[in-house]
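Lab notes, practical 5.
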Amino acid sequence: MTQDEPNPPRALVIDDDREFLESLSMLVEREGFSVVAARSLADAEARLGETSFDVVLVDLELPDGNGFAFLAEHEALEHSEVIVITGNASVDSAVSALREGALDYLTKPFDRARLRSCLSNVARTRSLKGEIADLRADLRHLGRFGSMVGSSPAMQSLYDQIAKVAPTSLGVLVSGESGVGKELVAQTLHRLGPRSSKRLVPVNCGAMAPTLVESELFGHERGAFTGADRVRQGCFELAEGGTLFLDEVTEMPVELQVKLLRVLESREVVRVGGSRSIAVDVRVVAATNRDPRRAVEEGALREDLYYRLAVFPMHVPPLRERDGDAPLLAQHFLDGLNAEHGTEKIWSPAALERLDGMDFPGNVRELKNLVSRAYVLGDEVLGADELGAPAPHRALFGGAERDGDSVTVRVGSSIDEVEQVLIEATLEKLDGDKAQAADVLGISLKTLYNRLKVYAAARRARAKGADAPD
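Output from the prediction step:
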């Protein structure tokens, strides 16, 4: 090596299996790392004073202790990236380590392509952690985390979770009510992750006909079905090397969930009408506006798929639980409108105070619509009058209403309110024929049954609350 050549990145490999240790060390060296090998934690500890390490690959269970616990105890390894090694029986332990900050994990026997991918992410991950630290500093001063806005304790907790999991390729399941910004969370995870140079491909599982979901996800071969006049790549292939965002995953037909689980486990897809397996390297971020565990109990989400998707579960709080964030968001949306239209409109103090006390059942989406309406109605200073009636906000919009054979939807109604009125009105019109109602509404019969269960449970809860003593 000449004096001008940079030093190679350094790796510490710890495993008590001599043959495995030699093989792994050789492969890590081929990826351009200078490798130090250790067969025990005591051996590794003796090496710590010799040099620092960019990455540590460590077996979780060693004869003289737990590998991850060992790393946590040594300040010399505080800034090293960690890849844990485990047998299939202790994958749960590896996942726990990931939640504590490990970069990734390898199972024995490990996939060499997976190893190369892990090691190639080391430099990128170190850079990302610096970027995330800067973003968290911005949060303290501006109430922002990248493109996300909010300084409430609930959002700061969410930002902390994003900061931990974004630099990894870990699967994330994002839950939260409609309109809270789950897709924005997925975008932030992608942007701050090691796959940001590749595509983020969003798929709304609840907006597609069940017969089209499989083709959309996995692609199809020419002639696979009527109208398939050419080969089409699915979203997994389109997201190769990047991130696939599965929105409203609990609306996916259960029979297709089996195929999705198989793809997540094998990292291979087979196009509809095809027989050839195609390797895919994709990070999956899924989202649902339902309680995932309740969805499992109701049969809308397979339990095995839930555990595969929710390696790192994350909940986005509703706006009503984000104290002080409504005015921040309102200013953010107004700034965007001013920039778009070349104006300089501002909020009055009374308007900001009103916003801070409003309910927003439609969450951030509803607030954004309200800001747009106030912008159109107001002049240079947007006052409380442009926001409509005083809080609580439900008094302003009042939801959707049934009127004979018609459903009236008022601007600002939450999607859940509109959906319930429409479903129940359709059922009544069809004399309770659920199969026909599902067909008319364009949803699966299972989805209809699940919705009706939710409505019934809500009625029982309200009745119970009404009967409770003061």
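Observations recorded by the TA: The CA atoms of residues 270 and 277 lie 5 Å apart. The domain at 398-467 is CATH 1.10.10.60 (Arc Repressor Mutant, subunit A).
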